[in-house]
TrEMBL record:
<comment type="similarity">
    <text>Belongs to the TerC family.</text>
</comment>
<dbReference type="Pfam" id="PF03741">
    <property type="entry name" value="TerC"/>
</dbReference>
<protein>
    <submittedName>
        <fullName>TerC family integral membrane protein</fullName>
    </submittedName>
</protein>
<feature type="transmembrane region" description="Helical">
    <location>
        <begin position="149"/>
        <end position="169"/>
    </location>
</feature>
<keyword id="KW-0472">Membrane</keyword>
<dbReference type="InterPro" id="IPR005496">
    <property type="entry name" value="Integral_membrane_TerC"/>
</dbReference>
<keyword id="KW-0812">Transmembrane</keyword>
<feature type="transmembrane region" description="Helical">
    <location>
        <begin position="117"/>
        <end position="137"/>
    </location>
</feature>
<feature type="transmembrane region" description="Helical">
    <location>
        <begin position="175"/>
        <end position="195"/>
    </location>
</feature>
<dbReference type="InterPro" id="IPR022369">
    <property type="entry name" value="Integral_membrane_TerC_rswitch"/>
</dbReference>
<feature type="transmembrane region" description="Helical">
    <location>
        <begin position="6"/>
        <end position="29"/>
    </location>
</feature>
<feature type="transmembrane region" description="Helical">
    <location>
        <begin position="81"/>
        <end position="102"/>
    </location>
</feature>
<keyword id="KW-1133">Transmembrane helix</keyword>
<dbReference type="GO" id="GO:0016020">
    <property type="term" value="C:membrane"/>
</dbReference>
Length: 205
């Protein structure tokens, strides 16, 4: 799925170079939204995708092991029909979340390089690294309170540097300067988070 999106993105950028500015504007808008909108506990039952699946398909209220589909009697007609399980609905939500994540990450990497090989391999390493570090990050996330604003600022910076390079008449924003600024922003967010949360105990699960 990610490869398809990268392939389409690379083809579009090669044919229409002005799309890089669209990607850059999208990143800036996403970063500003992350800074402005406050986090809230989502109500999964009100998710539009969940509501759509419940309105279009038969859905069981209980889990059935590792099965995605089960055949059982319909509560109204009594006929044996196929039902989808909550496990299948969770799978659909995860896949949709991955697409939404790609909508952010793919434009971000295209704002840095348009080489499809680098774009694809960097996405692979990012996904593998995040999955491997998930449990470590989940246990330490309470210490990184200000990491989200730092990442939002990074998105704004990555998007804005395309416009800045054009304003300064540069072919490309200097890679060393870009890496240094990105590192400084993330390091500042992590350091400030650790400083502000050092006296706070880890919340009990």
């Amino acid at each position: 799925m990610r490869a398809v999106m990268i392939g389409v993105g690379a083809t579009l950028v090669a044919e229409f170079s002005w799309l890089l500015y669209v990607f850059a504007a999208f990143l800036i808008a996403t970063g500003i939204k992350m800074l402005v909108v406050k986090d809230a506990e989502p109500d999964v039952s009100k998710n539009p995708l969940i509501r759509f699946m419940r309105s279009r398909f038969n859905v069981t209220d209980s889990h059935h092991g590792e099965r995605f589909f089960v055949k059982q009697a319909h509560p109204q007609t009594g006929k044996m029909v196929w039902f989808i399980t909550p496990l299948f609905m969770a799978l659909v939500l995860i896949e949709v979340a991955d697409v939404i994540f790609a909508v952010d990450s793919v434009p971000a990497i295209f704002a840095i390089t348009t080489d499809p090989f680098i774009v694809y391999t960097s996405n692979i390493f990012a996904i593998l690294g995040l999955r491997a570090l998930y449990f470590a990050l989940a246990a330490m996330i309470h210490r990184f309170k200000y990491l989200k604003p730092a990442l939002a600022i990074v998105l704004v910076f990555i998007g804005s540097k395309i416009f800045v390079a054009d304003m300064l008449g540069l072919e490309k924003f200097p890679a060393a300067l870009s890496l240094g600024i990105t590192f400084a922003i993330i390091a500042s967010g992590v350091a400030w988070s650790l400083l502000k949360t050092r006296a706070k105990p880890q919340p009990s699960s």
